[in-house]
Amino acid sequence: MQKTDCDTKITFCSYRQLGDEDKKLVEAAKTASASAYAPYSGFMVGAAINCDGTTVTGSNQENASYPCGICAERAALSTAASCNPDGTIRAIAIAARGRDGFTQEPVTPCGICRQTLLEYELRQKSPIRIIMHGESGTYIAPSAASLLPLSFALPKENKELHD
Ligand code: THU
Description:
Elements: E1 11-13, H1 20-32, E2 44-51, E3 54-59, H2 72-83, E4 89-98, E5 101-102, H3 111-124, E6 129-134, E7 137-141, H4 156-162
Tetrahydrodeoxyuridine binds next to helix 2.
């Protein structure tokens, strides 16, 4: 039997330690959270994407039929990919507020959003930096793949059928 480590390099820093581009993306994510429709959870999430230098935002949109709801990250990704299918997504910032204001802890993407981010990353063949904002600090992951070890991919023999 063998054991292996899944190594994930996450940077943890304060807001003021971020570069100007990252600060701009975090501010855009915070602003986008205002457009969330989250009457069921009360958790308003904003995501901002840097696609070839252009900022594209999204927010979570809930539904009375709960599974119909979409997260802020996937709302932003769908917009970015629909408006600019050949664009390269360099980074995504995520921020969220509850009833008491923006979260202290960094907001981390759910599993479905990680898998979705990964697909865009594989498609564009370059990593997407993930900036997870919290008022007490920010996590930065270098790629979606780094947040999803042993991620799902179609087995090679299945994939060939569709290629
Ligand atoms: N949500 C997001 O939009 N992004 C995340 O990264 C985590 C969760 C949304 C889904 C739901 O509308 C609400 O937050 C509570 O889970």
